[in-house]
Specification:
Elements (H helix, E strand, L loop, with lengths): L2 H23 L3 H6 L1 E9 L4 E4 L1 H12 L2 E16 L2 E14 L4 E15 L2 E15 L10 H6 L4 H8 L10 H7 L4 H13 L3 E5 L2 H11 L5 E4 L3 H6 L1 H7 L4 E2 H6 L7 H9 L3 E4 L3 E3 L4 E5 L5 H7 L2 E6 L4 E2 L2 H24 L7 E5 L8 E6 L6
Helix pairs in contact: 3-14
């Protein structure tokens, strides 16, 4: 390949990567999907999402974007290595976003790319999205209203929101505010006291990082550990610590590789009776009860008593006054969020088919609640 051709290829691949960011920002999912080969793959293991083929990439992207309040993606040039009609490269990303339920955050990530030359020009054969940093601290700003865009800041309230002052500190109104805002210090203390009175071991920790460290103290090396499917465990890094290393006998990776048709009984026993079960809950009441919602029910036996020990990591936004409020939180808040995730990953909605309420722990030392002062998860 001559130097001129390589320069031309690099320019075209850079243009391809720029088109991807522009299509994402403009919410043009049909254009974004057309940037891939017909059997191209978009993988986001940290979400997790895997979309294969242009149609899945288009429809999966539309499901994700329907949850946005706003989304800003900045891409930074990385490497390109060309080998004939194929190439590899990396693109560095910075993104900020807020979804319609009020959750927001900032992240830094890398796209690991494979490109192919086609009759239509260079296309993505594969993009793999690797998150390197996540900050879920609520964003203080907001997307300008149409009036603000046309006329400037205008009212003092608009100026406060765009500058990060005043109303930006307040939670979103309605159900989102009720179920997303971290509980006050007084409510957290009251919940800890109630959990202890009901037989649970309960600890109040500052944040997810503290819980991640504490988990290592609580689980003995070599124990069989089943991790429940949980955004809290994923976002905190606890799931990765347990499942990716060799410190424990991690059950989830094992059962994911087992045959559902021929090994279903063994799978059922493994997930129901581990040495340690680590998960989260959908709500915790100030009266000391834990509420767990499930679509399949596969995680409930370990929580209910099958596991020798259970550890629940719980964000401060999951604290509610009583059981009736906990059940409303399940239906009005957690279910819509889990449905959006399930639609993106599996192409179908979630459902609350099983509910487990743990009012007390009759076996001293079996159940531990790590209640955080920060919000994390659903």
């Amino acid at each position: 390949m001559n130097d001129f051709q390589e320069i031309a290829d690099r320019v075209e691949i850079e243009a391809l990567r720029g088109e991807f960011t522009d299509a994402a920002m403009m919410r043009d999912r049909a254009r974004l999907a057309a940037l891939f080969t017909p059997d191209g793959v978009l993988r986001m293991p940290n979400v997790p999402v895997e979309l294969i083929g242009r149609e899945e990439i288009r429809t999966g992207g539309e499901r994700l974007q329907s949850q946005w309040d706003f989304f800003v993606q900045n891409s930074h040039p990385g490497t390109i290595r060309i080998d004939g009609d194929a190439a590899t490269g990396r693109t560095y990303m910075q993104e900020i976003a807020r979804v319609l339920d009020g959750r927001s955050g900032l992240n830094f990530a890398i796209y690991h790319d494979t490109y192919l030359r086609t009759p239509e020009g260079w296309k993505f054969a594969e993009r793999v999205y690797e998150v390197r940093y996540v900050d879920t601290t609520p964003l203080r700003g907001s997307a300008p209203s149409p009036d603000a865009q046309a006329h400037g800041s205008g009212k003092a309230g608009d100026a406060g929101r765009t500058s990060g002052a005043g109303e930006a500190d307040a939670p979103t109104t309605g159900a989102v505010a009720e179920y997303s805002a971290p509980a006050s210090a007084e409510r957290l203390d009251r919940t800890i006291a109630a959990l202890r009175a009901n037989g649970f071991t309960a600890e109040l920790l500052d944040d997810a990082a503290a819980a991640r460290a504490r988990i290592k103290d609580l689980i003995p090396e070599g124990a069989s550990v089943f991790t429940g499917a949980s955004e809290t465990l994923r976002l905190s890094g606890i799931a990765q610590d347990i499942e990716a290393g060799d410190r424990y006998q991690a059950i989830r990776p094992r059962v994911l590789n087992m045959d559902r048709a021929t090994e279903s009984d063994q799978i059922r026993r493994l997930v129901a009776t581990p040495d340690v079960f680590v998960a989260s809950v959908t709500a915790v009441t100030e009266t000391g009860s834990l509420v767990v919602a499930s679509g399949s029910g596969s995680q409930l036996p370990a929580s209910a008593g099958g596991a020798a020990r259970a550890i629940w990591v719980v964000g401060a936004q999951k604290v509610v006054p009583d059981l009736s409020t906990a059940l409303r939180r399940v239906e009005e808040h957690a279910l819509p969020l889990e449905t959006a995730r399930a639609q993106a990953v599996y192409g179908q909605p979630s459902a609350v088919n099983r509910l487990l309420v743990l009012n007390a722990e009759p076996q001293p030392g079996r159940g531990t609640v790590l209640l955080l002062r920060e919000a994390i998860g659903f």
